[in-house]
Amino acid sequence: MADTHPNVRVRFCPSPTGNPHVGLVRTALFNWAYARHHGGTLVFRIEDTDAARDSEDSYNQLLEAMRWLGFDWDEGPEVGGPHAPYRQSQRMDIYADVAQKLLAAGHAYHCYCTTEELDARREAARAAGKPSGYDGHCRALTEDQVAVYRQEGRTPIVRFRMPDTPLTFDDLVRGPITFDPKDVPDYGIVRANGAPLYTLVNPVDDALMEITHVLRGEDLLSSTPRQIALYAALAEIGVGNGSTPRFGHLPYVMGEGNKKLSKRDPQASLNLYRERGFLPEGLLNYLALLGWSLAEDRDVFDMAEMVAAFDIDDVNGNPARFDLKKCEHLNAEHVRRLAPEEFVRRLVPYLQAPGLLPAEPGAEQLDLLAKVAPLTQERMVVLGEIVNMAGFLFVDPAAFTVDEEDAAKVLTADARPVLEASIKALEGLADFTPEPIQAALREALVDGLGIKPKFAFTPLRVAVTGRRVSPPLFESMELLGRAETLRRLAAAVELTPAS
RNA sequence: GGCCCUGUAGCGCAGAGGCAGGCGCGCCACCCUCUCAAGGUGGAAACGCCGGUUCGAAUCCGGCCGGGGCCCCCA
């Protein structure tokens, strides 16, 4: 806070392949928080250079997810900016031009090796215990050799020529890291068909967009020396402003069994969390804890607090395991923090999904929801639970059913007199509100039949709400109304075996 | 196989030479209680290993072991 740098320019640059996953969200979060903390600029860039994997659908999902999470960006799709366009598929001429310049300046060269040849040599190198990257085969081809290759019909890729000096950088998370040139071989930057690769377009755009800090996943740590070398070459040929960004590599988000959380892992899918009813607040709060902490003794915070406190130096380099239980707990905390009206507002879609509420809920339905919501708010981990918790109030009475398992356990022969006595007690009750309901039922069941409260009320709960777990019983009865309550109690009597 | 990152309770984070260790989740017990939650109280549980530096090491150094990643005409 005291030490902010408004000139910070960071970027979030996902590739639109499939569903957004939580690791991606964590990276976006840290970049966003870093930009906002420093009062800098967040650039949102779409890296859709792989036609085989990227899709328009994924692109739309990505934007939608960013909006849902509450991230805003200063430059990028839909907001534009001085470095537009921000979709790499629309910048192909730029990359072709840069590749041409790199070739002309000798920083890159044509490589005619086939994939098969490369694979074979890589295997051999590995077997011999040597670094298995590209071996420099085409670094210095003679014109005759080139002519031969061309005659064979080979089309070359463009390969970047790495310098032969050690490359060091000071990682913002991990400190100084040095790579020996023999471990960082020349690498491809343009496919044989002319399509540029990530290895080219990512640094080129970072240079052109004047990115100052690159915060990304640890999986890209070992390609950082290549990018630094490419930056130097770009500076030399006049692409970008000549400066190299700082790099910070965020810890992995691990899934079950010490494996990097994969896109295919269902636990990784952002959409799944949305569907279950996670709040953006809760999910982001949890994700922030994967590699960072606000304070020693505080886990629950909102994004404003995170922005105020976040800095990259405080990020921990350890891989972090995604702990669903803790994620759920934090979500529950945020659910409880919601203002009542806001809580109700967010609940609506989750009741609409299974058809318990229509697309345009009526005033009466919303009123009922507003009344039951407070009874559920602190019992809830994810919003989707509203369906099981309060569905009994919204379901068409004709369609109301009792959970089979719960009925089998609770609506036994013993329950029959309990239900019958309850009906009798409630029928003539003058004031059908929680206090009188409770008093009447206690008198009839606990005092009258000598049954412990716990066992007296459970059959009623199952009869009225359909489940053994529900919002408080007497309030539930009031909201259901006397007529329907009595009808359900009577129906439950029919379900009990006659003794 | 080579290189790089990483190693504090089951999990996530604090602690950065000085009482062997803090917080949260989870777990166990008890209290509260119409169910489930929430809340309250208490409890079990950790510095990967071996050396070195030092009066003193979770903290500094080296080695080992473990985990992960990268090494692609994917990003």
Automatic annotation (TrEMBL):
- UniProt xrefs under Pfam families: Anticodon_2 (PF19269), tRNA-synt_1c (PF00749)
For the protein in the UniProt heading, the enzyme class is: ligase
Per the Swiss-Prot or TrEMBL annotation, the motif 'HIGH' region is positioned at 14-24
- The source's domain of life comes to Bacteria
Going by the UniProt record, its keywords in alphabetical order are: Aminoacyl-tRNA synthetase, ATP-binding, Cytoplasm, Ligase, Nucleotide-binding, Protein biosynthesis
> Which GO-annotated molecular functions does the record name?
glutamate-tRNA ligase activity
Question: Which positions bind ATP?
Answer: K263
Where does it reside? Answer: Cytoplasm
'KMSKS' region, short sequence motif: residues: 260-264
What is this enzyme's EC?
Answer: 6.1.1.17
Segments forming domain Glutamyl/glutaminyl-tRNA synthetase class Ib catalytic: 7-326
Q: Which InterPro entries match?
A: aa-tRNA-synth_I_cd-bd, aa-tRNA-synth_I_codon-bd_sub2, aa_tRNA-synth_I_cd-bd_sf, Glu-tRNA-ligase_bac/mito, Glu-tRNA-synth_I_codon-bd_sub1, Glu/Gln-tRNA-synth, Glu/Gln-tRNA-synth_Ib_cat-dom, GluQ/Sye
Does the keyword section mention Lipid biosynthesis? no
The catalytic activity, as recorded, is: tRNA(Glu) + L-glutamate + ATP = L-glutamyl-tRNA(Glu) + AMP + diphosphate
Which parts of the sequence belong to the Aminoacyl-tRNA synthetase class I anticodon-binding domain? 342-492
Q: Which CDD domains match?
A: GluRS_core
Name the family: Belongs to the class-I aminoacyl-tRNA synthetase family. Glutamate--tRNA ligase type 1 subfamily.
What does this gene product do? Catalyzes the attachment of glutamate to tRNA(Glu) in a two-step reaction: glutamate is first activated by ATP to form Glu-AMP and then transferred to the acceptor end of tRNA(Glu).
Assembly description: Monomer.
Q: What is this protein called?
A: Glutamate--tRNA ligase
Q: Which organism is it from?
A: Kitasatospora paracochleata
Taxonomic lineage from the root: Bacteria, Bacillati, Actinomycetota, Actinomycetes, Kitasatosporales
